[in-house]
Amino acid sequence: MTDRAARWATKQVGRHGRAVSEVADELGCDWHTVNDAVVTYGEALLGADTERVGTVEALGLDKTLFVRLGRFRSQHWCTSIVDVGAWHQVTNGPTEACNNLIMRIKRIGFGFRRFRHYRVRALLYAGHPNWDLLATTTPR
Asked: Is 67 inside any structural domain?
């Protein structure tokens, strides 16, 4: 996949929330090729966008069921940490809103087997990275 196509695919999947399979069909390539490009360029973009995370005044915590694994479907949980300091009164609302967004992303990315892929997709879709940096970012 060319550099330009990889950047375009990353923007389509991350910013516009399109499915990897849909972008792969449009490009006429394999799902794995597009997903690898999204993860590679997405991690580079998130690493380059140092101003995405500001100062934190207060934190909110929430546990989310991430996956059920094994023969007996044991539960594996993911703890979400959210900055709730922007509001004058600390409530559970912002944490629940972030949890709802994570659940939407989880539904979009149903079937992820690697937490790294899920993390990149969630941060691209919900982390509000500076998309202008994508044109100048070079993955490792």
From this structure: yes
The SS3 assignment for 128 reads coil
- pLDDT (tens digit, 9 = 90+) per residue, 80-137? 766 666 555 656 777 777 778 777 777 766 667 787 887 888 778 777 788 888 888 8
Q: How many domains does the chain have?
A: 1
Residue type, position 115, single letter:
F
- The closest alpha carbon to 122, from 112, 132, 131, belongs to 112
Rg of the chain's alpha carbons, rounded to an integer? 16
Detail the DSSP E strand segments found in the chain. Answer: 59-69, 74-83
20 occurs within a structural domain:
no
